[in-house]
Structures are given as structure tokens and as C-alpha cells.
Write a structure and sequence with these properties.
The chain is mainly α. The protein has one domain: Hypothetical Protein Ta1238, Chain: A (Up-down Bundle), CATH 1.20.1200. 61% of the residues lie in helices and 3% in strands. It is built from 5 helices and 2 strands. The protein has a two-stranded antiparallel sheet with strand order 1-2. The chain is elongated and about 50 Å long.
Length: 183
């Protein structure tokens, strides 16, 4: 059975959660999973830009987990919904990838300016969107139950994206420009 893209149920500024509950589109829960969706799109862009198969594989796995995370956030917290789970192994995968990339990178001694190559700049934009998603989820967790692993995953993902940006820059021969504060 095919689904229609338009339902007209959101024409008055509300949207539905899994489980049927309706919320204003400005609700913090909607903002949280909407930002995760935006992040997933940026991760897809990074996957398309990457020329390294290992990076593509990591990014595809992350996109799958972001859908998992989004389904949790898009579910009615007042109902017992069965949604896919994030696992500690998902965080460990990113930590292992960070460690692997770090071994090939020079030690970080300064803050670095985002950029150097369009791929690197996109990585930093994705990192910033990830941090915003994390802030939205933390704000939501102050009002409603949110699994702590969701915050942990987003926190580690921003570290992964920072490191990936550095590794992409190295692979592309882009110069890392250290931030130099004015005297």
C-alpha cells in the first residue's frame, strides 16, 4: 500500500506523534526530532561527499541510528511504544572510529577554524547542527522523560563529526588553520 506524502492533518500547525498524540509544531519535542532529521540530512551529504569507503560506512550506520533516535523522540512519551533501541555499542562504534582517525591526525594544540575545503566545512556545519540537536534534546529532557543514551549518542556524534572533519581535511590536503586570538 502506498502512502500519500500530503495528509493535510498538519495544516493547522499541529503534527502527530507515533501513538496518535497531537502537538503544536513549535513544541520542544517536535523541534528536537526535527533537528535530528536536519542532522541526518547533513550526515547524508557528508556520506555523498566522502570518497573513503570506511567513512561512508560509518556515516551510513550513523544515519540508521539517527532514524532510531528520531523514532524514539517522535513517540508519545505517555504510551508504551515499541521503537528501535540505541545501544551502548552504537556509541562505542563512534568512539572506535574517533580513536582510529585520531591515530592518523597530528595532535590538536589549538582551536581550529572550520573550513579549509568544502567537505570539511560541511562536516563542521553537521557538527553544529548536532550540538543544536543535543541542546534541544537536553531541554526536552528537563520537561519529559528522554533516555539518557539519546543525549550520550548526540554528544559523541559531535565529537565524531569534529574528528571526521579533521580527517577529511588531512585526506584532501586541506590546511588546518589554528585560531589565533588577538593580543
Amino acid at each position: 500500500m502506498a502512502f500519500k506524502i500530503y495528509t493535510k492533518t498538519g495544516d493547522k500547525g499541529e503534527t502527530g506523534l507515533f501513538g496518535g498524540k497531537r502537538l503544536p509544531k513549535s513544541h520542544l519535542r517536535i523541534e528536537a526530532y526535527g533537528t535530528v532529521d536536519e542532522l541526518n540530512s547533513y550526515v547524508g551529504l557528508l556520506r555523498d561527499l566522502s570518497t573513503v569507503q570506511q567513512q561512508k560506512d560509518w556515516l551510513l550506520e550513523i544515519q540508521e541510528r539517527l532514524f532510531t533516535l528520531g523514532s524514539s523522540l517522535a513517540s508519545d512519551p505517555d504510551k508504551q511504544m515499541i521503537t528501535p533501541d540505541l545501544k551502548q555499542e552504537d556509541i562505542q562504534m563512534m568512539e572506535s572510529a574517533i580513536d582510529e582517525m585520531d591515530t592518523a591526525l597530528p595532535a590538536l594544540k589549538n582551536f581550529i577554524l572550520p573550513g579549509g575545503h568544502p567537505n570539511v566545512a560541511h562536516c563542521h556545519i553537521a557538527r553544529c547542527v548536532c550540538r543544536r540537536a543535543e541542546r534541544r534534546v537536553v531541554a526536552l529532557a528537563l520537561e519529559e522523560a528522554v533516555e539518557n543514551i539519546v543525549v550520550q549518542y548526540l554528544n559523541r556524534l559531535s565529537d565524531f563529526l569534529f574528528t571526521l572533519g579533521r580527517k577529511m581535511g588531512q585526506d584532501l590536503g586541506a590546511q588546518e588553520i589554528p585560531w589565533r586570538p588577538r593580543d
